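We emphasize that the prediction below concerns an isolated chain of 62 residues; any contacts that depend on oligomerization or on bound cofactors are therefore not represented. The input was used exactly as deposited, without trimming of termini.
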Amino acid sequence: LELRPRGVTVYFQLTLTERGPSVVVNYVSFEKPGETPEHNTALLEDAVEEARIRRTEPLAFP
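Result of the prediction step, given as a token string:
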């Protein structure tokens, strides 16, 4: 699968089994990579958090 949050492209495999889900990241590409692996890890964490699907509260109708 491919995930493209802002500034990052992540290629990964998602597996769903009766024992539970798993994700294997195969490749990560940064639009503007940082100078250290730690900086790139922080960029990836921020991008994935921003792209995460969140549960929202339903709208109240009068």
